[in-house]
Amino acid sequence: MASESHHKENLHNLQLEDERQHRNPSVLKMSQIVLPCHANHCGELSIGQLLKWMDCTACLSAERHAGCPCVTASVDDIHFEHTIGVGQVVNIKAKVNRAFNSSMEVGIEVNCEDLYSGRHWRVCQAFATFVAKRTDANKVQLRQVVPCTHQEQVEHSLAAERRRMRLIHHDTMQDLLNNKTFQRSISEENHDEDVALPTERTRVESVELVLPPHANHQVNTFGGQIMAWMENVATIAASRLCNAHPTLRAIDMFHFRGPSQVGDRLVLKAIVNNTFKNSMEVGVCAEAYHGDEPLRHINSAFMTFEVLDEKGRPRQLPPIKPEPQEGQRRYQEALARKKIRLDRKYIISCKQTEVPLSVPWDTSNQVYLSYNNVSALKMLAAKNNWDLSSKKNNVSTILHMSVAHYRVHTLTLDTLSCTGQVSLYTVEESQSLCFRVEFEMEIPAQRAFILLSDLSHRHEWDQHYTLCKLLLRVDEDDFIYQVVTPSVSKGGKYQDFILLASRRPPCDSGDPYVIALRSVALPSHPPTEEFHRGEVVCAGFTIYEVSKSVSKISYYNQASPEVLPYISTDIAGLSSSFYSTFCACRQYLLDNIISTSAFTSSAL
Q1: Going by C-beta distance under 8 Å and a sequence separation of 6 or more, which residues neighbour residue 599?
Q2: Residue 569 belongs to what H/E stretch?
Q3: Best CA proximity match to 306, nearest among 396, 246, 259
Q4: Which of 131, 298, 515, 569 has the fewest CB atoms within 10 Å, measured from its CB?
Q5: How would you class 491 by CB atoms within 10 Å of its CB: exposed for 0-12, middle for 13-18, buried for 19 or more?
Q6: Bridge partners (DSSP) listed for residue 550
Q7: What CA–CA distances, in Å, run from 79 to 23, 372, 494?
Q8: Helix 180-187 and helix 169-177: axis angle, to 10°?
Q9: Half-sphere exposure of 136 (CA within 13 A, CB side)
Q10: How far apart are CA 264 and CA 285, in angstroms?
Q11: What does the DSSP 8-state code read for residue 561?
Q12: What are 91's strand-pairing partners?
């Protein structure tokens, strides 16, 4: 135990030293002491003021990387964990995580510091998208971010998944609103009309004149300034409902639809859309006009407020009575956003160990389960403390994974003789053992991706996959399979697994192909007496293109302690069964390296 603790301490020190030696050129920091002019009447920092500081820091970071002016395009969900008091210091750090063509993701971390006690604590984290805008007519092509530290590699990899989620955010909302089960749940809601408050009493409208101090050096209104004005009217709307001072807890993902400039009049409208026992959603709309021109829609945002009692606990809020037509639409959409908000917070924001493996899959949370599936594999692949357990020459492999008791894959084998080198790496953390098997072979990366991502052909190279049936094609990148395998004990029940397979082609050159697997619960296929239902924590493949004809294929598995008896001899170097299994898969890839058309139609 002492040697393990010493080893972990050395790894931590090496990581800190690595981060000290390397400084991301886009990193910018801002520190502000909270003065009374920044605070509300409760002595707490106004969230609007905090949003202005966050946007300013992030914009300067984006412009440092781009070398030209940048504008805020969108901001992901923000959850405010703590309030900040007068006299405390706000420390904001922003850096570019990844650049795409003309847009980039900027990560923002906000921490609070108490100067008297020396305590530090996290307030919130955010991811903002900025777009580079040149003053000339030339098209912007941003240079790529080169991650150097372990944390930068993780964020760079996950940024592509977050971008994918942003692009389909609107479609996710519409799919849920059109879902018949969700529509029935709305129609079954029944509030006491006698105590319901009309939403009309919460309506707020205000106008602001955009002056030079509100704009950046391009005379465009700061996105943070617009958000500060929106937060102000949203707070007034929430206060009118509860007759008390509300606390802003979260802001949903929002997009800026167009720019605003100095001289514009910004019309800000807010109203309470719905209440949910201890919280309420306030919708805010910002529109701009100049002179006699018609209103331009700048932004819409949805903010979640709570009202705290004297002990700091959320108070129960009264139900509301929405207005006909538009009010009813806003009421229903607020319920849909709450469902999406809970899914995102539950599936994405939680640590991997806090999310139950077989999360029930449905159309409303499919985007977030897919994100969790791929991001978990990417984070596993990005670990920097892998230990080389063994290396075999004259044996080529690709991992077989039939699944084991409860949460694991068992490893089973076929002995074939192949050529090449296979490396087995392990890392043990807490109660789990993670392993990685890696090798190179002559096959184009895209073809290996197509062949390995279609699990319905798994039985052709893996004799321990008794059945691998496609249950649901979610979309072109996500599939749900039922996998049936023999029991790990003689005479026991066969096991079945419901697996979500998420596949991703490279986002940029240098990115791998990714095939991620995890267990989900499918309501149409509950556990039965016929099979013992098992679960998979995190598994899958990454495939890197070494050259046009050579690929580096890695298989990852995050296993629980139950799998140790099955793989301990391989890890100890007492068996080469791992490597024999890889030969069977390698031969399968070689046999189908040309005739992939049959697989392409089913896999794609």
Answers
A1: 450, 451, 454, 457, 592
A2: helix 564-571
A3: 246
A4: 569
A5: exposed
A6: 442
A7: 28, 18, 44
A8: 60
A9: 4
A10: 15
A11: G
A12: 31, 111
Q: Are 461 and 448 in contact (CB under 8 A)?
A: no
Least confident of 433-437, 515-519, 558-562: 558-562
| AA identity, residue 49 | Q
**C-beta atoms surrounding 68 within 10 Å:** 17
Task: Using the structure block, give the residue that is written with the tokens 């691998």.
Answer: 468
Q: What is the C-alpha separation between 231 and 222, in angstroms, rounded? A: 14
Is the separation of the CB atoms in 127 and 105 below 8 Å? yes
> The tokens of 65 are what?
């990387």
CA distance 411 to 566: 7
C-alpha dihedral (504, 505, 509, 510), degrees to nearest 10: 50
Single pTM value for the model:
0.79
Contacts of 372 (CB under 8 A, 6+ apart): 347, 348, 355, 518
Cα–Cα dist 255/243, whole Å? 30
**Other CB atoms closer than 10 Å to residue 466's CB: what's the count?**
15
Say how many C-beta atoms besides its own lie within 10 A of residue 286's C-beta.
25
The identity of residue 395, as a single letter, is V
Chain-centroid distance, C-alpha 151: 15
Q: For residues 549 and 396, what is the distance between their CA atoms, to the nearest angstrom? A: 16
Q: Which two tokens stand for residue 540?
A: 């899958």
Dump pLDDT digits (tens) for 206-243.
999 999 999 987 888 999 999 999 999 999 999 999 88
End-to-end CA distance of the chain: 48
Which amino acid, one-letter code, is at 225?
Q
User: Letter for the amino acid at 87?
Assistant: G
**Residue environment code for 296-326, b if the CB has 16+ CB neighbours within 10 A, otherwise e:** bebbbbbbbbbbbeeeeeeeebebbebbeee
| Cβ-based neighbour number of residue 597 at 10 Å | 8
Distance CA 181, CA 185 (A): 6
Burial environment of residue 65 by CB neighbours within 10 A (0 to 12, 13 to 18, 19 or more): buried
User: In sequence order, which residues have a C-beta less than 8 Å from that of residue 545 and are 6 or more positions away?
Assistant: 444, 445, 506, 551
Number of Cα atoms under 13 Å in the Cβ half of residue 265: 11
